[in-house]
Amino acid sequence: MWIRSDGDSTFVECRIHPNASKDSIEGIREDRLSVRLSAPPIEGKANKALIKFLSKNLHIAKSRIAISQGDKSRIKVLRLEGIGLDEVLSGLGLTLSP
């Protein structure tokens, strides 16, 4: 499952596609959230762009988003503090498939 709740945090597994023409959420691909970022994967720029992009879409502070796994990988697990599963899905414009 690409998204799960644990206490007051929500964890999201995603695959990053850097150097895209624009920042966007592609949807769920291979049981991961697929995110296109215009930032290059150099010196943490894509990681910063990902946090900024999600912060804007989910309307939460950047400090409440952390990369818990995959700092140097295209596949990452993000920890979103103080936001529920339903709020994340709504902010990303997605629904859980049965």
Hey, roughly how much beta strand do the residues contain? 35-45%
Q: What's the order of the H and E elements?
A: EEEEHEEH
| Fraction of helical residues | 10-25%
Number of strands: 6
Question: What does this molecule look like?
Answer:
The structure is a single chain. It is built from two helices and six strands. It has 98 residues and is of the alpha+beta class. The chain has a single domain (3-92), classed as Conserved Hypothetical Protein Mth637, Chain: A (2-Layer Sandwich), CATH 3.30.1200.10. A hairpin with a 5-residue loop joins strand 5 and strand 6.
Features:
98 residues; alpha+beta; Conserved Hypothetical Protein Mth637, Chain: A; 6-stranded mixed beta sheet; 2 helices; 37% strand; globular
Can you give me a brief rundown of this structure?
The protein is an alpha+beta fold and 98 residues long.
SSE map:
Blueprint: E1 3-6, E2 9-17, E3 24-29, E4 32-36, H1 45-58, E5 65-69, E6 75-81, H2 85-92
Parallel strand pairs: 2-4
Antiparallel strand pairs: 1-2, 2-6, 3-4, 5-6
